[in-house]
Amino acid sequence: MHRHLRLVRKGDFERVYKQGTRARGGALLVVAAPNALPHPRLGLSVGRSIWKEAVRRNRIRRVFREAFRLEQHSLPSGFDLILIPARPKLDPVLAEVRSELVQLARKAASAKPRPRKP
Fold it and tell me: I want to staple 7 with a disulfide (CB 3.0 to 4.6 A). Which of 43, 61, 93, 105 is the partner?
C-alpha cells in the first residue's frame, strides 16, 4: 500500500485518538478523524499484549489492509481511520471485515466528536 494512504507518524495516531470519533462492530473498532486530504488514510493498531503470536497479529493486519484496499473508494474521503480488532482472539474473515469497515467508517465519520477528558 502506498505511503500516502497510511498513517505512519506517532503524532498522526495521537491526533486521531484524541480528536476522532469511534464506532464499534463485531469484528473491529474504527476511530475516524478528519484530515485535509482528498482521500482516506489507514492506521492499524493490533496489540501485542492480546495476540502473543506474531503470525496472528500479522494475519489480522493483512486482512485489515486488504479490506481497506478493496473498499477505499467506498470510504468517506478526507478521514484518517485507525482500525482495531474488536474482540480478543479474533480470526477475521475478509468479507465480514469489508462490509463492517464501510459501515463503521461512515458511522464514525458522521458522528459528532464528544469532548474528551484531558
Answer: 43
